[in-house]
Amino acid sequence: xxFIPYSCQNIDEDDIAAVTAVLRSEYLTQxxxxxxxxxxxxxxxxxxxxxxxxxxxxxxxxxxxxxxxxPDSIVWTSPNSFLASANCARYCGATVDFVDxxxxxxxxxxxxxxxxxxxxxxxxxxxKVLIPVDFAGLPCDLREMRALADRYGFAILEDASHATGASxxxxxxxxxWADACVFSFHAVKIVTTAEGGIVTTRDPALARKLRLLRSHxxxxxxxxxxxxxxxxxxxxxxxxxxxxxITDLQAALGLSQLRRMDAMHDRRVALxxxxxxxxAGLPLRLPARASDRDSSWHxxxxxxxxxxxxxxxxxxxxxxxxxNIGVNVHYIPIHTQPYYQRxxxxxxxxxxxxxxxxxxLSLPLFPALTEAQQxxxxxxxxxxxx
Length: 386
Ligand SMILES: *Cc1c(COP(=O)(O)O)cnc(C)c1O
Fold this sequence. Notes:
This protein has helices at about 15-25, 35-45, 55-65, 85-90, 110-125, 140-150, 205-215, 250-260, 260-280, 315-320, 340, 350-360, 370-385; strands spanning about 50-55, 75, 95-100, 130, 155-160, 165-170, 170, 180-185, 195-200, 220, 235, 285, 295, 300-305, 360-365. By secondary structure, it is of the alpha/beta class. Pyridoxal-5'-phosphate binds next to helix 3 and helix 4.
């Protein structure tokens, strides 16, 4: 039986033609495909500005810097995320702390956030930036977080790496609420450019700063030049930036993928709905749904419910892998990593994230997954849990 991965890129002939056209063109990088992709992405997400970068980690890094994160800053994020959600603040020398998750949504818990903010206000340790993560593609409680951000004076940098195509209160993720929002185009994500990412924001000054930081802090824009303009060759470095640029090859792929985004999204929604039906009645906790938001269904993550079965998550994982099903686990809580343990975090610090991790399994979900393959996954799970 062929291997069924947990995620798989979706590349069609149009994508290949789009990349090939760039290969035959004048620019492989820093050409017209990048602004075309940025404009299309910003339009689709009802965002004022979109700045494409080499990967979402780079986007998170320069978004932290642009939001003023530095060695004196405190940044909070969710422990149930990929390492980059926390590492980006460490790149700026900031102190990282975590807010435990809501066991139902698996996103950063609003109640835990409120309580932690109250304590931090008293202690004088309020965060500069909060990095909520739309886990599996389910948007966070962004409206309430916005109200808290305005009250306590922190910025929201949304890690929407999973949430391309998700919506909240009828609007696309990336359009509002957060000060900046980062999406990933890694090959396993919803839309891919192989490696790549984008930062959206409503703030033109923040977008300008992101553009500077993505390319060495360098500008040729007459409005930004500080010294005498000795000639048309003049460029100035006005910030310490990086080479975090995306290429035209990648942007062309992204633009082509964007044209199929809604169709791919609909397929994920249908497959997720079908999983709900196929798995109903098994000793599993299925992903939460909420009437005010729609997931992008980057992941279909279930929990082995230890109150209803003696079978362990490890045993279920092994049974699925033995059946050639590429089940995965998202995520090992960030604070339990050796690097973060050296910074002083301990197991037990964020019990909801740890409990979720102990039971979690991400099942295969991608647009080309067939109903027959999905049936195999469900049947294998049923047998493993029996
Ligand atoms: C994939 C991912 C990232 C990093 O994205 P890259 O584009 O690989 O740098 C960051 N945060 C989350 C939640 C992710 O899933």
